[in-house]
């Protein structure tokens, strides 16, 4: 079985990756944090023309590769018009307008400038626009002069642990990115064959754009099986019950063939007492949909995320929350699935149903013949 990274190492990776602020089109700090983690693991990433990071690690001769995909952005605001320290900002992503009633605290950032500054948003107007999905806009009043292209995140804790609960400003999907990084760490000392790609994409919240570019451009081997790694709404799968094997999302059903390796891994984890779940998660559209619609073989996993898109149960804006045990479960599942894919393994029960036993076949034929004889008389 896979030897998992130490829990404290996993949480340290998560904190470093999930703490940087990020919104669609301004993911550079998160990408830099991910690149630093890859360097720490001794892995040199490739950066594509869109700024997205990818790596491949492997050992031996693998029959099948898995490609784990996670996005580096999170819903937030981008300044579209400014007048001194006041401006109008578009919200990049999706959220129910009721969460922006009244005023709400923000932190404004500028690409290439280290420090952010506090601001207040107010007067939110629901006004969806395409193609770069924006649900609406608001007015921002800041401490300092603003510039078009500045961007803002919610002023909530970036990372905070309370027992087994991990509160993050951007669990969706920086926790998914950290899960992949810890999976790569888990595979470093593995002696069995495996082949794993990892892709860290941009602009998912604005329209799955980064994943769509990877799929359109064929940036991965066409025979690799895609595994979207998300932090998805716990309304559809409870937090604390393990990583979710995702059979589909709001728009698409994923591949049974790709999911097979996740289920093989699930069997192994069950034998070790590690909890997992399998669910259809209809609360959103993940990056596997971008690949499925373009003919790729894809599946997904998800961390149950309480406070998804920072939407609190009481109507307030809150940090997202995932649980430690679900994160560790996801790392174990991903690493074991990579080993199963390399060996092209099947679930233990599946060979029993692939071919009907000959004695059952003959029994059904005999009974059908008797029935035909009994009913053929006038």
Corresponding CATH architecture of the largest domain: 3-Layer(aba) Sandwich
Class by helix and strand content? Answer: alpha+beta
Q: CA-to-CA gap between the ends?
A: 65 Å
CATH classification class of the largest domain: Alpha Beta
Number of strands: 17
- Supply the CATH superfamily name of the largest domain: Zn peptidases
Provide the number of structural domains. Answer: 2
Mean pLDDT, rounded to whole units? 95
Helix/strand order: HHEEEEEEEEEEEHEHEEHEHEEHHH
Radius of gyration: 23 Å
Could you explain how this protein is built, in words?
This protein has 378 residues and is of the alpha+beta class. It folds into two domains: 7-74 and 158-342, Zn peptidases (Aminopeptidase, 3-Layer(aba) Sandwich), CATH 3.40.630; 76-154, Beta Barrel (Thrombin, subunit H), CATH 2.40.10. It has nine helices and 17 strands. The strands form three sheets. The chain has an eight-stranded mixed β-sheet, with helices on both faces. It has a six-stranded antiparallel barrel with strand order 4-5-8-7-6-9. Helix 2 packs parallel to helix 3 (171-187). The protein starts with 6 loop residues before the first helix and ends with a helix.
Main features:
alpha+beta, 2 domains, six-stranded antiparallel β-barrel, Aminopeptidase, 378 residues, Thrombin, subunit H
Brief rundown of the structure:
The chain is of the alpha+beta class and 378 residues long. It has nine helices and 17 strands. The strands form three sheets. Strands 1-2-12-3-13-16-14-15 form an eight-stranded mixed β-sheet, sandwiched between helices. It has a six-stranded antiparallel β-barrel with strand order 4-5-8-7-6-9. The protein has a three-stranded antiparallel β-sheet with strand order 10-11-17.
């Amino acid at each position: 079985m896979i030897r998992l990274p130490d829990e404290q190492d996993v949480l340290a990776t998560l904190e470093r990756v999930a703490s940087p602020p990020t919104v669609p089109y301004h993911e550079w700090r998160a990408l830099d944090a991910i690149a630093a983690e890859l360097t720490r693991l001794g892995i040199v990433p490739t950066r594509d023309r869109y700024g997205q990071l990818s790596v491949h690690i492997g050992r031996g001769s693998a029959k099948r590769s898995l490609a784990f995909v996670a996005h580096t952005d999170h819903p937030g605001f981008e300044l579209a018009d400014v007048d001194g320290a006041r401006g109008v900002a578009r919200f990049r992503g999706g959220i129910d307008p009721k969460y922006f009633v009244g005023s709400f605290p923000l932190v404004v950032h500028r690409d290439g400038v280290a420090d952010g500054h506090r601001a207040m948003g107010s007067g939110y107007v629901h006004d969806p626009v395409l193609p770069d999905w924006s649900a609406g806009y608001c007015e921002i009043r800041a401490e300092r002069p603003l510039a078009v292209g500045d961007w803002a995140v919610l002023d909530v804790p970036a990372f905070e642990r309370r027992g087994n609960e991990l509160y993050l400003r951007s669990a969706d999907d920086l926790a998914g990115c950290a899960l992949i990084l810890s999976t790569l760490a888990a595979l470093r000392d593995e002696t069995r064959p495996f082949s794993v790609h990892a892709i860290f994409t941009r602009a998912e919240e604005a329209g799955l754009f980064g994943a769509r570019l990877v799929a359109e451009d064929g940036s991965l081997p066409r025979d690799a099986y895609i595994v979207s790694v998300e932090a998805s709404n716990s309304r559809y799968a409870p937090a604390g019950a393990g990583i979710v094997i995702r059979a589909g999302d709001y728009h698409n059903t994923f591949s049974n063939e790709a999911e097979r390796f996740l289920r093989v891994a699930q069997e192994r984890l069950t034998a070790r007492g590690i909890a997992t779940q399998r669910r259809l998660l209809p609360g959103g559209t993940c990056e596997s949909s971008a690949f499925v619609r373009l003919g790729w073989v894809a599946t997904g996993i998800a961390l149950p995320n309480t406070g998804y898109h920072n939407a609190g149960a009481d109507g307030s804006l809150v940090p997202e929350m995932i649980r430690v045990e679900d994160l560790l479960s996801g790392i174990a599942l991903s690493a074991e699935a990579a080993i199963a894919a390399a060996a092209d393994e099947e679930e233990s029960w599946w060979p029993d149903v692939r071919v009907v036993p000959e004695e059952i076949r003959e029994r059904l034929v005999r009974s059908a013949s008797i029935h035909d004889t009994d009913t053929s008389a006038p």
